[in-house]
Design goal:
The structure is a single chain. The protein is α/β, with parallel strands linked by helices and 263 residues long. Helix content is 20%, strand content 26%. The chain has six helices and twelve strands. The protein has helices at residues 55-60, 67-75, 105-116, 150-155, 236-239, 245-259, and strands at residues 8-15, 38-43, 77-80, 94-98, 120-124, 158-162, 168-174, 177-182, 185-189, 198-202, 208-213, 216-221. Strands 3-2-4-5-12-11-10 form a seven-stranded mixed beta sheet, sandwiched between helices. A three-stranded mixed beta sheet has the order 1-7-8. Strand 10 and strand 11 form a beta hairpin. The chain is globular, with a radius of gyration of 18 Å. The protein starts with 7 loop residues before the first strand and ends with a helix. 39% of the residues are buried.
């Protein structure tokens, strides 16, 4: 059984999302039905099959998905994948990276090429993941405690940073959507030649970066802990049987690709 994490009192931080961090130019507006939105998800978090599930458990259906993944399944045509091979030229609408394991160079190159040709991606990378796990330290099935996307971020002229003295449980509000999390990071811009076709705008403290990368768009979030349902215990919407703030927030991220059109 997962142990219940202990957090310090809430620190409230108010941020304005998207209205102030929309990129200077964007690709063509999506028009397809959101329910049929094809999303490829790569993650080290045990949200698809649960923690510690064997292949036999998966094949027999004796596993339990996390609430956030069940919600995504009900809203979108989402598929968990271990590789992005064949992404270019596919019918994928959005690639979602959520604290993924170390990606093969070929997958990183495929993603970069796909985005630059007009693909959309959402990346949640946490520099200090506080995700409760019953698995021992060193177990390869444990969620990654730190993001491993530095090569990709650097190629796009970004760096993920973290203030290691921030230990409070934090409540963030984005355009009316509240989430609770801990150990958040931020993105900073780097100056390098590979980022010449990249235009990014940042929310307060760099928690979110919204970037135009050549012909494609990427929204980056410097956290992933907020996806864990144990942090929704004070969420009245979730407690009343409705949607949590984390669910509505991820919907808002995806909505950006449908609501913003080419200038």
């Amino acid at each position: 059984m997962l142990g219940k994490p202990v957090f310090l009192p809430v620190l409230a931080i108010m941020m304005v999302l998207f209205a102030q961090c929309a990129p200077a130019s964007t690709t063509e507006q999506k028009t397809s039905d959101k329910a049929s939105t094809a999303i490829k998800l790569m993650t080290s978090l045990p949200i698809i099959w649960g923690e510690g599930g064997s292949m036999q458990d998966i094949l027999s259906g004796d596993t339990e998905s996390a609430p956030i993944y069940k919600y995504w399944q009900n809203q979108y045509a989402i598929e968990g994948v271990d590789s992005l091979e064949g992404l270019v030229g596919s019918t994928t609408d959005i690639v979602m990276l959520v604290q993924p394991r170390a990606m093969a160079p070929a997958d990183l190159a495929e993603l970069d090429d796909w985005v630059r040709k007009g693909g959309d991606a959402i990346i949640m990378t946490d520099p200090d993941l506080i995700w409760p796990s019953a698995l021992p330290l060193g177990d390869p099935k444990r969620p990654l405690s730190g993001g491993l996307l530095s090569p990709l971020l650097k190629h796009w002229g970004l760096e993920l940073v973290f203030e290691d003295n921030v230990t409070e449980l934090i409540e963030l509000e984005f355009a009316g959507h509240k989430i609770s999390t801990v150990g958040v990071g931020g993105f900073e811009a780097l100056n390098n030649e590979s980022a010449e076709e990249v235009v990014c705008n940042f929310s307060e403290a760099g928690f979110i970066a919204q970037c135009q990368i050549d012909q494609g768009r990427v929204i980056l979030v410097a956290d992933a802990d907020f996806l864990h349902e144990q942090l929704w215990e004070g969420d009245s919407g979730w407690l009343d049987g409705g949607e949590s703030g984390a669910m509505r927030f991820t919907d808002a991220l995806i909505d950006q690709f449908y609501s913003v059109s080419k200038d």
